[in-house]
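Private note to self, pasted from the team thread so I don't lose it. Backbone tokens:
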């Protein structure tokens, strides 16, 4: 619009004054108070009907005798900038909603170990409001011990500049171990700041389940002893270690005598109880480092690491003379003394695998049975 079309016209010609509130308020103030106003105005342009945002500076014009005679103003159209700012605000709001509702601990840390960001879940775990964490050193927020523990994995991310996944452990307030699966990635926040962004999820329940499955896979359900699978896996490793370092190793094979008769006479559940009690008794005769397993129905085996034949013989005899007397029939007060046949061997230089050792132990057990049972046969 040419200047001459503007001069002499009032605001109502250009702006929709009914809805341009701030413009009216500002102008009123300037004309009444001899002042300067610097503010944002949202004005409706009459010709286009558009809402336009201005950054406006307005000042009263005063005559020599102090009367306000008008006003002078400079307005800059900041509509686009304002729209962009609003867009960024909206996006930040959305990002906040996502980061604070996702079931993960999310945090950002710089190379100097300051927290640059934490989501609500992380702040809650640290027991502090977000604003008391951001900008603070990790040790000041979570204590030196825990901070140093986490820093070990954080450091790897900064050193390799690559995304990494860690299994991390921390203690909760009650001292219980919590397991976390943490993905940590490097991120260039700005020209001067290299940070890491971490996402950690609490996998304690999953970890416990995994451990329980592992235990079940290695354990005999009836007696709670190691099962055959675990026994042979462990034995092979123990054998390799013994061979490598020239160490002794004993193996004891145990079988209950005439166990079939117990089942036949008193029933399977009574037989089960006998198996459980005998397992407990054998455990009492061996050392902490010996491995006892139920390798068959009524067969047990023991690995005795770093034991000479003499030492293993003492253990086998201890197992053999243990009183395994059980009440089989409560009504008739019938007790039965269960006996064991035992085969004992120790590792020889020429043994190439644990299987060779175990076959010899089984043969020794067979000899013990053959010679009348209830004895230890040493091969
Ligand atoms: N109660 C019970 N019995 C079992 C279990 N596993 C195997 N048995 C029994 O153990 C018995 C083993 O019998 P045999 O192999 O003939 O051996 P035995 O009667 O002990 O005779 P010898 O070994 O020659 O002295 C069988 O009756 C099986 O049913 C179990 O988990 N529970």
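Design output:
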């Amino acid at each position: 619009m040419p200047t001459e079309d503007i001069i002499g016209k009032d605001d109502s010609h250009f702006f929709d004054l009914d809805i341009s509130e701030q413009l009216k308020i500002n102008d009123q103030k300037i004309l009444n108070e001899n002042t300067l106003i610097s503010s944002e105005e949202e004005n409706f342009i009459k010709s286009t009907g558009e809402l336009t945002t201005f950054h406006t500076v307005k000042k009263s014009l005063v005559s020599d005798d102090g009367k306000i005679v008008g006003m002078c103003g400079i307005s800059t159209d900041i509509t686009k900038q304002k729209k962009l700012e609003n867009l960024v605000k909206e996006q930040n709001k959305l990002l906040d909603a996502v980061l604070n509702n996702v079931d993960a601990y999310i945090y950002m840390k710089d190379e100097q170990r300051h927290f640059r960001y934490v989501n609500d879940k992380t702040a809650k775990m640290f027991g502090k409001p977000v604003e008391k964490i951001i900008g603070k050193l990790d040790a000041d927020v979570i204590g030196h011990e825990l901070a140093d523990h986490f820093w070990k994995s954080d450091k790897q991310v900064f050193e390799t500049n690559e995304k990494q996944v860690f299994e991390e452990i921390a203690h909760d307030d009650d001292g219980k171990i919590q397991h976390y699966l943490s993905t940590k990635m490097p991120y260039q926040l700005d020209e001067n700041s290299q940070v890491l962004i971490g996402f950690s999820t609490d996998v304690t329940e999953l970890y416990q389940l995994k451990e329980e499955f592992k235990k079940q896979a290695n354990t005999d359900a009836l007696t709670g002893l190691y099962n055959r699978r675990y026994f042979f896996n462990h034995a092979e490793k123990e054998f390799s270690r013994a061979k490598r370092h020239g160490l002794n190793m004993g193996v004891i094979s145990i079988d209950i005598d005439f166990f079939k008769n117990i089942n036949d006479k008193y029933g399977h559940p009574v037989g089960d109880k006998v198996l459980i009690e005998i397992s407990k008794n054998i455990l009492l005769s061996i050392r902490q480092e010996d491995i006892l397993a139920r390798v068959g129905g009524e067969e047990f085996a023991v690995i005795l690491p770093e034991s000479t034949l003499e030492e293993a013989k003492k253990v086998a005899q201890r197992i053999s003379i243990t009183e395994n007397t059980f009440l089989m029939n409560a009504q008739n007060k019938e007790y039965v003394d269960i006996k064991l046949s035992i085969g004992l061997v120790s590792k020889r230089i020429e043994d190439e695998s644990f299987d060779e050792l175990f076959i010899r132990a089984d043969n020794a057990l067979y000899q013990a049975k053959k010679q009348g049972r209830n004895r230890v046969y040493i091969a």
